[in-house]
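On to my pick:
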Amino acid sequence: MKQPRTGFLTLFEALHYCESGWYLKNPSYPVWILGSETHLTVLASPDLSLVSKDVYDQGSTATVHQAEVEFSRLSTDQDTNSGFIQCAKLGELLISLNIPFTDQSLADALKQLDPENFGVILEEPFLQYFFPGEMANRRLAVQNFQIVHYNGLEKSNLDNQVRYQIGDAHLLDPTEELLEKEPVDQNPIHRCLRTKWPTIRIKWKTGRTPSLN
């Protein structure tokens, strides 16, 4: 599947009717179509760090996401997503990801990834070993960013004037989430956005939450 330029998030996922896949939640540009029961609106952000180009041409090295997909494909028990592969499959995995290796480098990797000689490789150590930069970037993911929402229906805007709604978004870290005292906003647009950013909190410039309908 090819990474789209524009993503798609839907309130129906928050209601457990369906789920948008990884590519729809992670387009190559920070623009998402938002779906409600009756209408489609648009969310965008000027912050390009919210997305990453998932380029994977033949002959190029894969991204972390593609490594996760291939690792899962070779996992011992795909039905339970066991999170490990047999050591004997490491070479096959590296070939599928276009990661070059020699017999010696493969042996060195196995020593690092299976130091106890259990015969299996866990997913997290594999990703840390072969994709240290991207894994570090994940830990330093953006926490604050601006968002812009557009609803083209006059009746859904204040005073029937169609306008962009600008908000400041913040992603809570686990500690902040535990200490948060205010109830989580259950407005449809916030529920929709939490399908991608589970801990997102938004302050809208106008003080009025935009409508998805």
In short: The mean pLDDT is 87. The CA atoms of residues 70 and 96 lie 7 Å apart.
